[in-house]
Write a structure and sequence with these properties.
about 375 residues, alpha/beta, Rossmann fold, 7-stranded mixed β-sheet, single chain, 6-stranded parallel β-sheet, Quinone Oxidoreductase, Chain A, domain 1, globular
Length: about 375
Amino acid sequence: MSRTGRVAILDKPEGTFHIEEKPLPEVKPGEILVKQESAGVCGTCVHMYHGRLPGIKYPIILGHEIVGTIDTLGKGVETDLMGEPLREGDRIYILPGMRCGKCYFCSVLEAPNLCTGGGAYGVKPLSEDPLYFTGGYGDYIYLNHPWSKVLKMNADPDVAVLLEPFTIGIHALDRVWVKTGSVVAIQGAGAIGLFTLIAAKETGAFKTIVIGAPASRLELAKEFGADVTIDIEEIPDAEERIERVRKETPGGYGADVVFECAGVPTAIPEGFDMLRRGGTYAVVGHFTDVGEVSINPFTHLNNKHITLVGVWGGKLPYFVKGKPILESGKYPFSKMVSHKLPLERLGDVMEALSTDYRLDGKEVRKIVIASDL
């Protein structure tokens, strides 16, 4: 009798997650079947649930932050992308992005994060087979595409699962110039904001300021090394928050670099006003279309002579750089996961992350879905 596994299929934007039992595929040479241990729920998943990411086809199995153990290793698969030997039972991280290596952005510009011919597990399946086991919200993930890449992990699954969001923070720091002694402000205290904080500390920032909510996330930001935190629930006035940031900078001129990690359009003009003249502003939190915002080209851009950058996705080197930091235990990564829930709770998760970030009477920091619950 063939084995089966469950998948949570989202039928349409703001639809229902249908838990269905499907037969597991026969693993062919060059393929891997992975038993899911932990799959993170990120803001992009929530926006995809609401239908805010153009080009997404439904029904879909979401979940692109995936760690699991190798259930079945196809013939010819011997190592991970770093040459580490692989065996059945090993814990691995699945790099969600599958890059074609052939398009203009991959081959000429060497910017695989902008690949036009690839896809991603939990976002854009590339297989012509049924979509089952193509995302993290299920019991298994089937890696049957030659562009698939994995990294062997030496960390608890609820720490290892944080690798993909960590790459976004590393990418953000790679897009700007943070000199030793810089003052950095980070708008947003979610996973992306906290990982950008860590990357800023590792890169040489002298003072880090995190602006966000709820309070439990800001307490965690302090544990991760934030020098100053500003609670937007306690200080709802944007002008007061701007003044608070400026007071923490040399001469009151503003931060050297501001990272927008909130995913809220109104945070952007506020962030511009936290920035000193000649500083750099990085938009990190907008991976889906949640609306427009008004800015003034003179006061926000030219007169301040700023550098403005966007950050899209991650690249393979950032996974490699982030892995040893996660595994080192240098930061209290395990405290980031506040909720570990079964597939059947996905609807509740989307509701909580679309409203007040509270679930089961507890503030949300990071939610993971575990197949064995």
